[in-house]
Amino acid sequence: MFRSLLAVAATATVFAATPAMAAPAATQNSANQAPQKVISAYFADWDVYGRGYFVKDIPVDKLNVIQYAFGVPTFDAATETPGCSVLDPWADFQQVYWDGTNSVDGLGDNYPDQKLYGNFNQLKKLKAANPNLRVEISLGGWTKSTWFAEVARTDVRRKAFVKSCIDTFIRGNLPTGGWPENAGGLGVAEGVFDGIDLDWEYPTQKADGNINYGPEDRHNATLLAKEFRRQLDQIGAEKGKHYLLTAALPAAKSSTKYFELADFVKQLDWANIMTYDYNVPGGTKAAPNTLFSWDPRDAGASDPTWNTLGTVGYYLLQGVPAKKIVVGVPFYGNQYIRSDAGLYGPFNNAGLNADSIQWDQKPQPSYHDLVDVAGILGSDGKGKLGYTKSWNVLAGEPWLFNPAAPHQLDGGPLTTATTIVYSDPKSIAERTTLIKLLGLRGAMVWEISQDSNDHALITALGPVLH
């Protein structure tokens, strides 16, 4: 069944590449067009707090799109007024860079005479030095999709919501009244963002806490995307520029449960498919976060789309053109403790804390954690400090195992069998080959600060742009 799906998908790819179905041609080096090939990476506003990772640290020579996480859909229930706001004013546009230490161009800010500080100002500097770079604002995400169903419910609300997002992030009209006293104002962030990425997780579902969700969301999401495309084209005509519209879409066949997939994607420049979190630390087995191919031992093995190859094939069969498919890649893994049986065995993660910054307390440590912080994975790809690296041939993913790994948990020290599944340059190279072979648009990364100091993972995606 799985091979049949891939065979049909490959046939669909051939037809999708014909002139009648191909996406419009774009010029890679034109600021007025969408890039033909994409390596897109999320940069989160909280990166400046957690790892101390700044815009200047982004390896801009290895990607051409940055998705800034996140902008927030809002809704005033009393007045039924939709809105679109920044998530963290301080990190986004108020944080003063007093000297050039963390600045893109090595220069400190000109306090108090600037109106734009923080990440937004640094992104503007990064774009000035790299004219082919595009930056999008991503709206929503797992924790901030709360009001999407409400703002998308009626034509009046959709128009008002989209206008608010464009006013805030494309026209750059930021709130005032904070500190620094001159920060914010009309038009101060214009030119920072080249488009909008919709990250509604998920239409028709409560997910992390969506309000008034229902079956009508599925069609309303399509109408919302159409309204974004209409208004972005409108301001694009005004500014003489093409503004990007993309979306983060779920993996596997569940995607058609949430979205009118083909119609929704028609409005987009491309779709970023979240081909990860197939298994999470809240599951029942110590299983891969992302699978490249089908593994009969996996909890989701009954679904042939429950892996990267299967998901891509399913999207193609649903009428999504290859040139609009961007494959998601996680730069983090899953950690399972009390997992004596190793891969696909039982585990008990009691004591791990998703809010911890300590790598051995995290259910999902980053590649940076494994290589640069913990030192349990060498730059040569081999396990260290008691960890043995193995390769899951069926799923196409690496994993680490230590029968007696030390952990400093909130409840005290613990020594236990530990299994860690993650992405490495070899597994990411598989995605690169898939993208090139099927003529897909590119790859998307969550998220760039989670890469190792030597940028090993993003480097493995390099051939996508060539």
Question: How would you explain this protein's 3D organization?
Answer:
- The protein has an eight-stranded parallel barrel, surrounded by four helices. It has a four-stranded antiparallel beta sheet with strand order 9-12-11-10, with no helix packed on it.
- The protein contains twelve helices and 13 strands.
- It is of the alpha/beta class and 466 residues long.
- It has a single domain (2-332, 423-465), classed as TIM Barrel (Alpha-Beta Barrel).
- A hairpin with a 2-residue loop joins strand 11 and strand 12 (412-421).
- Mean pLDDT is 93; it is low at 1-5 and 7-29.
Largest sheet: 8 strands, parallel, barrel
**Helical stretch count?**
12
Write the CATH homologous superfamily: Glycosidases
Percent in helix: 25-40%
CATH topology: TIM Barrel
By DSSP, the count of extended strands is 13
Tell me the overall shape.
Answer: globular
Q: What Rg, in angstroms, do the CA atoms define? A: 22 Å
Strand content: 15-25%
Provide the residue-averaged pLDDT. 93
Number of structurally distinct domains: 1
CATH class bucket: Alpha Beta
Cross-sheet strand order for the largest sheet: 1-2-4-5-6-7-8-13
Order of helices and strands: HEEEHHEHHEHEHHEHEEHEEEHEH
GO molecular function: chitin binding; endochitinase activity
Signal peptide: 1-22
EC number: 3.2.1.14
Family: Belongs to the glycosyl hydrolase 18 family.
